[in-house]
Write a structure and sequence with these properties.
154 residues, ten-stranded antiparallel β-barrel
Length: 154
């Protein structure tokens, strides 16, 4: 009986470890492929994005160029559960939510003072080497935009 219990315990430990190390295709370092992207002038352009995961908590750091052509740095931490979590460094949003649609697809929503300003979809290619971010929204000046940013995995 003890041998069975020990065997089951060891099996569950290996299963748990395997789940912890399962690769999420969203995670990693991504660089903007400007030739394949269509970014509306006067909107934020993230050129370098890093997704990392620690014990179910996701952290996203993005560097790029803001609407005025100055360097920008934004950070978001939370879960891909559709709930709003604070974002820093983005003058057009104070909260973001991400929802996992499937293994390779996320939806996102940016809010400012509780009002949705941007919605989008993030899709990682089947080979995991690129991702396409499609964002629809309104700038701080009230102008509607649609950006399609293509990123290559580094």
């Amino acid at each position: 009986m003890k041998i069975k219990a020990i065997g089951l315990t060891v099996a569950f430990c290996f299963l748990g470890a395997a789940m912890c190390f399962a690769v999420d295709p969203q995670m990693g370092t991504w660089h903007l492929n400007e030739a394949k992207s269509k970014i509306t002038p006067g909107t934020l352009k993230n050129t370098h994005v890093v997704y990392s995961n620690m014990f179910g908590q996701v952290k996203i750091k993005a560097d790029g160029i803001d609407a005025n052509g100055k360097p920008s740095h934004t950070e978001w931490s939370g879960k891909f559960d559709g709930k709003d979590y604070p974002v820093t460094g983005d003058p057009n949003s104070d909260a973001r939510s991400y929802t996992k649609v499937n293994e390779r697809t996320l939806t996102t929503s940016n809010k400012k003072n509780g009002k949705v300003t941007v919605t989008g979809r993030i899709v990682v290619s089947d080979d995991g080497k690129s991702r396409t971010v499609t964002l629809n929204g309104t700038t701080a000046k009230g102008k509607k935009f649609k950006n399609v940013a293509v990123y290559d995995k580094q």
